[in-house]
């Protein structure tokens, strides 16, 4: 017989009735105290949690999930932890879910494990919803979740025709603001360091940026695009390729996320011995705290993470499962320009 | 009736027998295909997973966890996501657990939610083990996990007399190497920027560092300590306090993690206009990839994350629950010096 088994059989299980007796409340009050979102007076809840702690009582969510079909577990599929933006996203979801007494089952997806496979694994658990931050997802997989009544919300992206709801910042608007900032500062030639070519986030930032430049008469030949793989290292490499290119470095570089903008800055300054913004101006996107540090002082577009996280949770509809969600709210959320030191001059008006 | 309920009642549930029939194998082979660590030929497993995909079949881990007392879920309690070291730790655990077909239930602990509270919440789920990276944990809580047969392993720390196993790098050894490097480079006065004063990690790095300096005749008055709160911002502030102090800046600063060493460098260079290592030499600890970037080139001690993660999983004993663990292996794992540009001169021999 294993030690584990011995422990299980040897312990006398405290029940909710014991806790109710000690706290001087009804058993149903004890249930409510442990149920997320249930109506209960804070003093009563504290009294019950106190009694539960004294008695080592913990309700068994797993057993109750079989009857309620609710586990209070939400799956979060993270695609890219190398970008600090997603660390901040994970932290924000962790905090907001804990406030709602829900837990995050976290999957990190890399090349070895496709998102579809991750969801296949997830479906073995009784989960109340799926939040997805990686770009690839088949419509078949969204269908499998739907068939099980599990809502899927995409974060920081959307997948056209996937049937999954996408919460995102207004990326195209942000791209336009960066273009405007560069134009006001006198830039004539432009480079973009792009991310996942299949991701809507990168595409929308690029299209807003290019659109605004074209509107202002910039010839298409003065706008070049370099793949940066969404990473710091990819951006370092992209700047080296720009520099080696016949056209040389442009006046202004848009890193479509801050991590790439930081890689571009470091390569310009420490590898090529150039000045930012003196020789080349730079802007990023996301407003990660790292970009605000002394060596960077990066001009960027802030993603409204808190509002995006709350919108995601709202669309998971955790308290009213199965209720139809109003899809007319599927609008991008507008962030705002954060003006620092990597583009010369003053903040232009928003366009 | 809710939409969710309708889906559940309306769908015809595929069973493992349907999958067995399509794949041309026994029903027990199907069970084994979905059981982590079970013996099954890879071709057979692939055939079964293929059939399962075609039939939209997913085993219900929650229901089976009630009979097996195993959910294949391991809880990871993360204390400090602001330190990129823990992002890399999360990624490493995610990958290693997925390789073993286990999932991570992730808790982020902040001031609002104590570790004890996080574990109380965790215990509602059928979890197979707890990995803890935050410093505070009561012996009562370790006892509650033990009573339920749930192993608790501390990562990057230990808590004396807690009864929980601690996996860690040899922090004291690392502190000694940094002291030796500074001494060889000619430093006479020393500053330390420390982390959590209750954490064993910070204490051990500091004690190894101070020990080696004292052994070499450095007077205690030439070694000063400043609280940096384990964060980049805390270290920036610590350097400003050192600078404002009557004794002024020391010859060498040891940031007891890389994030703090990076904050110290940025403040010296960009706020005080000094050179690193010309005016002040710097070393860190952890070897996060960010410290290797062009502007930093930080000399540091590498924590052997992969070996530490594997040792942690080994001590969770997931495949043989309840089997006693050999505690004689509770030895710190030695990392190694990573010699870059923030301490002048060549790498000294290890001490």
Automatic annotation (TrEMBL), chains A, B:
PROSITE patterns the record matches: HTH_LACI_2
Q: Where is the HTH lacI-type domain?
A: 14-68
Q: Which InterPro entries match?
A: HTH_LacI (IPR000843), LacI/GalR-like_sensor (IPR046335), Lambda_DNA-bd_dom_sf (IPR010982), Peripla_BP_I (IPR028082)
Molecular-function GO term, any one: DNA-binding transcription factor activity
Q: Tell me which UniProt keywords the record has, alphabetically.
A: DNA-binding, Repressor, Transcription, Transcription regulation
One Pfam family for this entry, by name?
A: Peripla_BP_3
Task: Give the protein's recorded name.
Answer: DNA-binding transcriptional regulator, LacI/PurR family
Species, as recorded: Puniceibacterium sediminis
């Amino acid at each position: 017989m294993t030690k584990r088994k011995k422990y299980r059989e040897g312990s006398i299980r405290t029940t909710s009735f014991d806790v109710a007796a000690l706290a001087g409340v009804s058993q149903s009050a004890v249930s409510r105290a442990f149920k997320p979102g249930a109506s209960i007076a804070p003093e009563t809840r504290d009294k019950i949690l106190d009694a539960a702690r004294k008695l080592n009582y913990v309700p068994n969510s797993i057993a109750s999930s079989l009857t309620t079909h609710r586990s209070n577990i939400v799956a979060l599929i993270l695609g890219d932890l190398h970008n600090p933006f997603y660390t901040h996203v994970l932290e924000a979801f962790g905090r907001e879910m804990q406030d709602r007494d829900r837990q995050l089952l976290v999957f990190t997806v890399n090349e070895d494990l496709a998102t579809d496979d991750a969801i296949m694994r997830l479906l073995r658990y009784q989960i109340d919803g799926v939040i997805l931050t990686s770009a690839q997802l088949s419509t078949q997989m969204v269908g499998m979740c739907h068939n099980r009544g599990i809502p899927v919300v995409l974060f920081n992206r959307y997948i056209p025709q996937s049937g999954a709801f996408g919460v995102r910042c207004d990326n195209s608007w942000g791209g336009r603001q960066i273009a405007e900032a560069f134009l006001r500062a006198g830039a004539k030639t432009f480079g973009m360091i792009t991310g996942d070519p299949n991701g809507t986030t990168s595409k929308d930032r690029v299209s807003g940026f290019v659109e605004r430049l074209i509107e202002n008469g910039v010839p298409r030949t003065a706008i070049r695009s370099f793949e940066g793989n969404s990473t710091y290292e990819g951006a370092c490499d992209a700047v080296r390729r720009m520099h080696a290119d016949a056209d040389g470095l442009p006046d202004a570089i848009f890193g479509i996320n801050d991590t790439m903008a930081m890689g571009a800055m470091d390569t310009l300054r420490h590898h090529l011995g150039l000045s930012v913004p003196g020789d080349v101006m730079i802007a990023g996107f996301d407003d990660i705290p790292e970009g605000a540090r002394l060596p960077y002082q990066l001009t960027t577009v802030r993603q409204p993470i808190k509002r995006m996280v709350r919108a995601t949770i709202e669309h998971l509809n955790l308290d009213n499962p199965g209720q139809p969600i109003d899809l007319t709210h599927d609008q991008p959320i507008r962030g705002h320009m954060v003006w620092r030191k990597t583009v010369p001059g003053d903040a232009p008006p928003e366009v």
